[in-house]
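Handover notes (outgoing to incoming on-call)

Open items:
1. Manganese transport protein MntH: sequence verified, structure written out, both below. Nothing else pending on this one.
2. Nothing else urgent.
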Amino acid sequence: MKKKSLDEINGSVKVPTVYESAFWQKFLAYSGPGALVAVGYMDPGNWLTSLSGGSRYGYQLLVVLFSSILIAMVMQSLSIKLGVVTRTDLAQAIAGRVNRPTRIVLWLLNELAMMATDLTGVVGTAVALKLLFGLPLVFGVLLTIADVLVVLLFLRFGIRRIEFIVLFAILVVGTIFAVEVCRAHPAVAAIAAGFVPHSVILTNHRELLLSLGIIGATIMPHNIYLHSALAQSRRYDEHDPKQVTETLRFANWDSVIHLVAALIVNALLLVLGGTLFFHHGDLASLQDVFYGLKNPAIVGKLASPLMSWLFAFALLITGLISSITSTLAGQIVMEGYINIRLPLWKRRLLTRFVTLIPILIIGFIIHFDEAQFEQLIIYAQVVLSIALPFTLFPLVAITGNRGLMKEHVNRPWQTVVCYLLVALITGLNLLVLV
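Manganese transport protein MntH structure tokens:
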């Protein structure tokens, strides 16, 4: 018998049949997995690139941010389709088509990617604790071990309640940045112009590199694996073609809407950087933003300790919430590739301890210098960039397999477009690495 992906939540949420209930009832029943995935598009790595892009180039890179989310929507839709149609996640689908040595190599590579994802959460949480409470970074890092208790507490509620908690967290973070941007009174016309492509992006070397960084760092392996499993959390009749088609439709609506929310949050960060910090030098770290928000010499009469505190609070929320998704994604990878199943609390502790070892070693080497410590986020993006092609190329290939996907197989033009997008993302990541 085929093992279920994330057995604890697989098929745990009942949804209306295709023949009953109104559109909005169905939409609400299917909504939720997209929120868990959207958190991955709002991690500290995205915060740094968005804020830095705004502080250096104003609103010009909004079009780059918009383009990266569009590409993400395409890739997440393939992940959804794989999970809904085949009732397998991406790790299971790949493992069933390669030999054992290849499975082990892919497992190790993706484990590194999961740890890199976890690293951004650890660094973001530790920095937030330092900014909010003055807690030394080393103690903030060690304190993140306790977030396993937060994850376990959330998981006891069931996947539906977790989805609501994460959605509420996204709304809180979005509201905080919306308030901060509104206080800054940005030029609406200039923001609109930022969504129009500018040739200077291609001719300015530094601006091009930052643009490549935004696109290359947006899509991460754990989100692809995660969505292919979360799409199976709904209890639908997989033998009813109409039900499968409807599940795909609403799951994609859920994904698109929450990715739009992720776009809004990242755009607010970029606008915040462009409005308050443009012409005030590059923002090298998250702490630069924190101190800058309450520094009259930089933001003038808009300086506010409350706004800087809310910024750090939002960073703390995203750091904690990302623990849930990295735990689930790590479980998917381990079960799918090497068929080892651990209780989620053990999986969480294992990932966190392995992640903390290099963080603490590097931290002591650099004497936990705050600016250098945040650069660990950049190194994490390097690992994710290396792992990404080994996730996206198989995803496109598998969803283009007619024998597996049947009538939901990628159309030839879709396959060509997706391969081109994956090649583009891979090329951008390589260019950024170089």
